[in-house]
Specification:
Blueprint (H helix, E strand, L loop, with lengths): L9 E7 L5 E5 L6 E10 L5 E7 L6 E7 L3 E4 L3 E2 L7 E5 L5 E10 L1
Antiparallel strand pairs: 1-9, 2-8, 3-6, 3-7, 3-9, 4-5, 4-8
Length: 107
């Protein structure tokens, strides 16, 4: 499938099975920026904190969670301002964390 302007939808999945400090979800192709359209998290029924961000010089946290269980589906376009900036999750969740991200890459 391809959008009218030539953008191909991309789907990424990442998971961690133990406490994680940083999990890279998506590293764009060289010279590209990520346009995130949809991201979904699921995690254990144990307390944990998660921060979603693009790894660039001005790390902006888009969402921070602190709860007893994580289950979240975020649907809104978020564009990385920096070329080559990876999408990451930083946290201290204990147990299995799964992340599904969808979007496309821009020049």
């Amino acid at each position: 499938m391809e959008f009218a302007k030539g953008y191909t939808p991309i789907s990424k999945t990442a998971s961690a099975t133990a406490a994680t400090s940083t999990l890279t979800i998506w590293t764009p192709a060289s010279g590209k920026r990520i346009a995130l359209t949809d991201i979904e998290f699921s995690g254990p029924a144990l307390a944990g904190n998660l921060t979603i961000y693009f790894d660039d010089t001005s790390i902006r946290a888009y969402e921070v969670f602190s709860s007893t269980a994580i289950g979240f589906h975020y649907q809104t376009p978020i564009l990385s301002n920096t070329v080559n900036a990876s999408l990451k999750v930083k946290g201290d969740v204990v147990g299995r964390l799964k992340v599904n991200a969808n979007g496309f890459e821009l020049d």
